[in-house]
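TL;DR need structure tokens for one chain.
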Amino acid sequence: MANVLTSVGDPQSIPALLRRNASQFGTVPAYREKEFGIWQSWTWGQTEQEVEAFALGLIRLGLKEGDFLAIIGRNRPYMYWSIVAAQSVGAVPVPIYQDAVAEEMSFVLRHCGARFVVVGDQEQVDKVIEIQDQLHQFEHMIYLDPRGLRKYDHTHLHQFSRVQEQGRAARDELMDELDVRRDRLNYDSTCVMLYTSGTTGKPKGVVLSNRNVIETSKSSSQFDSLRQSDDVLAYLPMAWVGDFMFSIGQAYWTGFCVNCPESSDTMMTDLREIGPTYYFAPPRIFETQLTHVMIRMEDAGRLKKWLFDVFMRQAQKTGSAILDGKPVNVVDRLMYWLGHVLVYGPLKNTLGLSRVRVGYTAGEAIGPEIFDFFRSLGINLKQLYGQTEATVYITAQPDGEVLSDSVGKICEGVELKVDESGEVFFRSPGVFVEYYKNPEATHETKSPDGWVATGDAGFIDSDTGHLRIIDRAKDVGKMADGSLFAPKYVENKLKFFPNILEAVVFGGGRDACAALINIDLAAVGNWAERNNIVYSSYQDLTSHPQVMAAIQDHVEEVNRSLMDDRMLSGCQIHRFVVLHKELDADDGELTRTRKVRRRLIEEKYRDIVDALYDSSTTVSTETEVTYEDGRKGSIKATLEIRTVPMDDVSVRLAAE
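>> reply
TL;DR here they are.
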């Protein structure tokens, strides 16, 4: 079978692609889901029947063309079917982050005016019921898992399977109506509305058309030779544009199989069982995987640790070159082959990445050291750059042209330019239609001739043609001495160390940089247990003298690496503090895609930031926190402020 299915007059909508797939290869798997420890499978033919039954059930309940249908839940075939069923009846699907608190859900549901909501389980039902008085257009909620819901008022509450049963029963009556609605769909019809993460304010509803999704899916699938025989693991938030493109756009274009894990707790086990050939993960996933590898190596026996260290040095020397097909001498190839037998192969199998043919990371910058580690194992990990407003793709790294410090070359059909201030602009078939109910923001972001401001600062390398992103344009600035300030670059270097989970660097307009640092509880807790160090909480670990000393060592190492970068050597960290709590999306400190809300953190921890820039050696603080059940509380702590000696860059440069 061809790598990518193409035909004269390509389908003009996702439901049309579903009909094509069911017709051309209806007996091959489209979805798998692990439930109660057992993998279940649905073919493309069965998927068409499931989607059709739910679409007919939605029509029977009164869902109209142009209505909005919200989807809240973890990655399950039923949830993806809900998206395509909504499209089939001419409605607009709106996926919402399942871990969003009720207040966040309220804003999105009110803003789009959703009449229907499809949810996964009782937890999501309760969230919607909590805010339903604020939702004046809300009429029906459909749930998937019936556990705990038997005694609820079912006047406007419906079980997913029951809606499908009613749809099947009304097929003769409603099928003509469904066919009419599907046939009205075209390239300009709305395919989905996805809300931005709201890093700097309220989320915006990004309207994407069938043209945006299908054209981008087509070109990106051809770029990486994606095949109907590929497998992906769908575990990232359904409300994120990346998951929508991989699990709906590209999946329906190429016909590959979407595999849904049983839960977040079993994700790594399920990843190993599926062994995806096409894999995507944001930097945080790779950071976590690397942390777990390093923890295991610390616990390993002497011989195993020695083998790991020896062959990882060999991998760092030749792994990427072999992967890219570059010349490598026979001795190094032999050593790498031996390393694959003893270390790399078993490690890739443990990570679930043995079969990966194409792997990507995006969402934010990944530390070059982390990126190089995975590529050195022989994993074809690449970077791409995009955003919701681009239907993901702006640039991507071609095979054999992978650089750790770039985000690739311009994708097919995309135009790119960088203005005088360094901000990156693009224009492509994937450019979003509009921000829903927000013409001002649409006008600010997208020009009349289709150019979109990304908000990122970068430049195109004249030697390689690759785009290099420095940081968010609003975050890039100057130090007091005029040197460049790019906090994300420094933060990524810090997060390479397994002990550091998150870092927020300040310094724009100041004489020196300072940092707030989160330790990684898994990594540091493992170290504490190995060294018989007793602790009762996260806060205990953050204040331990040996933990502080280890973090200072990491900061000093980052400073030494910055010394070698003429452009960013002024970003060395002079002072830091280890925070007494993890940054949390429920506290508003991170977005649901786990991006740092830098301005909010600077304001929330103003007392700590101020102390970093005076002569204080400690700072006492009290911080509001949100518990898992939604209750508010506070944490008090006295934090140690560490001063790190910085090298005199001007002296070193003069000596050179």
